[in-house]
């Protein structure tokens, strides 16, 4: 468990789950064992998670599906507008453009060199996935 997380009532977390920092998990959420929930992620109410969630991602529904970026959480935690913009571009490459994951990561690498720490956290949370990413 990371720091500054919010867990609503009846959030069921199985064994060996890794939860990053500044994560919000809604009521009646279930998280399968060995899943990873990245920093600044947001999980909506009554969501069933069976795969890894990268940093900054917002998920909801049963079964879970990606519904966007947690831009509100990033703004509330003083991310700069430039950092949020570059993370949005990376998000679109991974989730909206239809690229294979390896190709999308190569394109993200070209977005900014050297990568901002915020963008690098997004990339690292994707590359360290062991259960597979929710896409």
Characterise this structure:
This protein is of the alpha/beta class and 135 residues long. It has one domain: Udp N-acetylglucosamine O-acyltransferase, Domain 2, CATH 1.20.1180.10. 32% of the residues lie in helices and 19% in strands. The strands form three sheets. The protein has a five-stranded mixed beta sheet with strand order 1-4-7-9-10. The protein has a three-stranded parallel beta sheet with strand order 2-5-8, with no helix packed on it. Helix 2 runs antiparallel to helix 3. The radius of gyration is 14 Å and the shape is globular. The relative contact order is 0.16.
Describe the structure concisely:
With 135 residues, the protein is an alpha/beta fold.
List keywords for this structure.
135 residues; alpha/beta; Udp N-acetylglucosamine O-acyltransferase, Domain 2; 3-stranded parallel β-sheet; 4 helices; 10 strands; globular
